[in-house]
Amino acid sequence: MQIRILATGGTFDKEYNELNGELFFKDTHLADMLRLGRSHLEIAVETLMMIDSLQMTADHRARILARCLEVPEQHVVVTHGTDTMAETAGVLGPVITGKTVVLTGAMVPYTFGSSDGIFNLGTALAFAQVLPAGVYVAMNGSYFPWHSVRKNRIKGVFESV
Amino acid sequence: MQIRILATGGTFDKEYNELNGELFFKDTHLADMLRLGRSHLEIAVETLMMIDSLQMTADHRARILARCLEVPEQHVVVTHGTDTMAETAGVLGPVITGKTVVLTGAMVPYTFGSSDGIFNLGTALAFAQVLPAGVYVAMNGSYFPWHSVRKNRIKGVFESV
Amino acid sequence: MQIRILATGGTFDKEYNELNGELFFKDTHLADMLRLGRSHLEIAVETLMMIDSLQMTADHRARILARCLEVPEQHVVVTHGTDTMAETAGVLGPVITGKTVVLTGAMVPYTFGSSDGIFNLGTALAFAQVLPAGVYVAMNGSYFPWHSVRKNRIKGVFESV
Amino acid sequence: MQIRILATGGTFDKEYNELNGELFFKDTHLADMLRLGRSHLEIAVETLMMIDSLQMTADHRARILARCLEVPEQHVVVTHGTDTMAETAGVLGPVITGKTVVLTGAMVPYTFGSSDGIFNLGTALAFAQVLPAGVYVAMNGSYFPWHSVRKNRIKGVFESV
């Protein structure tokens, strides 16, 4: 079973620019993370975009949807900023059939030594392998069907609606 | 859905004794790891033993089996040394019915800043939630049914047999 | 020999707010850093302020100067943002006599798993113990007398002028 | 001012072999550590040996002494296991004149995410630049002249004798 990971950016992949003190995107760290996790899954990593999910437009979401439909794999993980992850899931959910697509992200950048990114990546890859076809969000150890998930921005956690 | 984690030790929970340069066990780091992973799952962590899996005897395995059967949860994760993880799975597999039990571990101690422990914990918790009843090993991003898994000690990875 | 550390903030002590993705100050991490460095020096840590050095005014610098003069220790380390560290050194330098005062900081926050903060802290504490009375900046492994140092903001390093 | 670092091994440079769970030596991590510390010192790193200091013989110490004398630099840092660091200092001390030689090490391997190695490296490089000619041990934030230092193995700290 091959899995496709579509990287779109988000906190997951942010880095610290030590010259100006700002956060920015360079490349995805997914290859590093998979190596550190000793993953031996067959995974094709593809960077679709590298942006903050607050800056995602309908066009960006259309591209993510199109790629989910185009790729040959039946099992897809989308790494995504947490702020609008539920919104993107809501775009993918009604259209995608016959594939298991799992969106995940992180509250703290991988490069800041946090562990929620690699924990979430682990859960997302597992859910993508075994959940029935459909679109899901994998955060905080749980999976949420696309039509019943939101981010609680006060608490910084995902919850069912 | 509540999940029970039974900690038995293994590389996962080893620490470095800076006075004598040896590895040892103190307490499990599961609470820290779940906190860093921003897990919001309902989890009961229970330390059954804190040993190297090379020192596990039939008695130890009988205790693990007994606890898997006794606990009220239908979803159980067992953290375990990798060297004899497949052997313990082979003890649990033929007896446990109606529960999903997932064994996992790490190649590098959590306290050494490695990431395979927290990645594996993520996959194990996800598999424990969605795989059908049975006993599995979750390592290297994959799950393996108890009757068809071994550790390749040369490569340091788990593979199907 | 007792050493006083006066914490003023700077990148050294910044943290990541995972709810809004911004950097902020809470408490200094100096106690943690000294513990991880296995320091057995007699050190009194005192937080004077917790601000970005770009927001430092003449009043802030006057307070730092006053505290350097008031404290009983002859050996003082000031942790400080790098952007205006040389400017503060220029305020302290002409006034302080009979004490060794060393300013240091970091390019990457300690909480981001960087190592320049703890490396710089090591050099600053060593320089504060053995350099003759005077005011210095300790960055990039070197010490610079207060009257001949500037931050090269393009390269992100300190250099002699 | 150029500084020579002579690496001899010790806990500083130990790594974890995830296949057999043992600690071993591969290469020194000094280049990584200097890069993370944003050092801009002129430093020549040279690996003399890569061993545990409990396995150091009189021959090994004679090699270290010979190299300290031969290298053109007046400022030398020797990275060394902590267990017999004081003994090696006792071999170098009576012979070396006109150079500042500072021995340092770590209680926890750099690769285990510890911070005492990089903290100690910072102090050692600073002491090597400014202490008068002589042989010293730099540990726990302090420097100790070669003739009055021992490791307290119960506490894991260096102290004056």
Oligomer designation? homotetramer
Question: Which structural category do the helix and sheet elements of chain A fall into?
Answer: alpha/beta
Report strand % of chain A: 25-35%
Q: How many E strands of chain A? A: 10
User: Residue ranges of chain A: pLDDT <50 for 5 or more in a row?
Assistant: none
What does this structure look like?
4 copies of one chain form a homotetramer. Chain A is of the alpha/beta class and 161 residues long. Chain A contains 4 helices and 10 strands, in the order βββαβαβαβαββββ. Chain A has helices at residues 30-36, 58-70, 85-92, 116-130, and strands at residues 2-9, 14-17, 22-25, 42-51, 75-79, 100-104, 134-139, 142-145, 149-152, 157-160. In chain A, the strands form 3 sheets. Chain A has a 6-stranded mixed sheet with strand order 4-1-5-6-7-8, with helices on both faces. The longest helix of chain A has 15 residues, at 116-130. The model of chain A has no long low-confidence stretch (mean pLDDT 96). Chains in contact: A-B, A-C, B-D, C-D. The interface between A and C is medium-sized, with 16 and 17 residues.
